[in-house]
Amino acid sequence: MRIPPFATALAAALLAVACATTTSPTGRTQYIGAVSQAELDRLGAQAFTEQKTTKRQTGDAGQKRYVGCVVDAIVAQLPPAQRQIAWESAVFVDDNPNAFALPGGKVGVYTGIFTTARNQDQLAAVVAHEIGHVIAHHHDERITRQLGAQAGVGLVGALVGSRYGEGASQTATQISGAAAQGLFLLPNSREQESEADIVGQRLMAQAGFDPRQAVDLWQNMIAASGGSRPPQWLSTHPDPRARIGELQARATSLMPIWEQARGAGRRPACG
């Protein structure tokens, strides 16, 4: 029985790469390294390709240019290693106000986000938040945690032996599903979401997008949810209203960075 690509890639990564510790952009200790950066980028590209084969992409050239413009402006402010990646964006036809970014420079935006991100600055808040997950190594961190827990019950051994037994399909599905979910399907932890807020709001300011608009975005999200549970994109954040207070305070401190960016000619005109 054929083992799905996700399963093979993750099994190889777990066997070949030891875990390590690093420090996140906000100073917390992270455990990463179950997947090498090359493998992580390959998995991100594969997940993005699968997303494009299962979800319809917009035929609206204006939407594609709009998203691409915002992504390019944010990427221009990344550290040199991340800027060298060939970043790619896609707009998917889906009413859910959602977006994601994957290792290897892949950004996906759902058309539903345009109903809540009502200008380029608000869209930049979404895109910068998602890219923040990538540059903060959150995908690596989550997969390392998942595989570390599964390794304790002999996951790799089960995978290798499964090609000779009736459990092949079940095991392969378990691992490939964990890989896809670890990359972008499952919600991120609140800790990671808060960190992506911090990284993303600073990135948008450096790119010349108004960091105060991140607050307006959240207010739009709350309004769109009717005051009940926020949309999927925000489902694991702390209380949205408390989050608005943090975004407002950070926006004030980021105004000099935004003004400096504007003074340096970084004045995005995406739409």
Write the layout of secondary structure elements.
Layout (H helix, E strand, L loop, with lengths): L4 H12 L3 E4 L5 E4 L4 H18 L6 H15 L4 H4 L4 E5 L6 E4 L3 E5 L9 H16 L2 H14 L3 H8 L5 H18 L4 H17 L6 H12 L15 H24 L8
Parallel strand pairs: 3-5
Antiparallel strand pairs: 1-2, 4-5
Keywords:
two-stranded antiparallel sheet; metalloendopeptidase activity; 11 helices; protease; 271 residues; metal ion binding; globular
Written description of the protein model:
- By secondary structure, the chain is mainly α.
- The protein has one domain (5-263).
- 58% of the residues lie in helices and 8% in strands.
- It has helices at residues 5-16, 37-54, 61-75, 80-83, 120-135, 138-151, 155-162, 168-185, 190-206, 213-224, 240-263, and strands at 20-23, 29-32, 88-92, 99-102, 106-110.
- The strands form 2 sheets. A 3-stranded mixed β-sheet has the order 3-5-4, with helices on both faces. Strands 1-2 form a two-stranded antiparallel ribbon.
- A hairpin with a 3-residue loop joins strand 4 and strand 5 (106-110).
- The relative contact order is 0.15.
- Residues 12-17, 152-173 and 180-185 have low confidence and may be disordered.
- It holds the Pfam family Peptidase_M48.
- This is M48 family metallopeptidase.
- One of its GO terms (molecular function) is metalloendopeptidase activity.
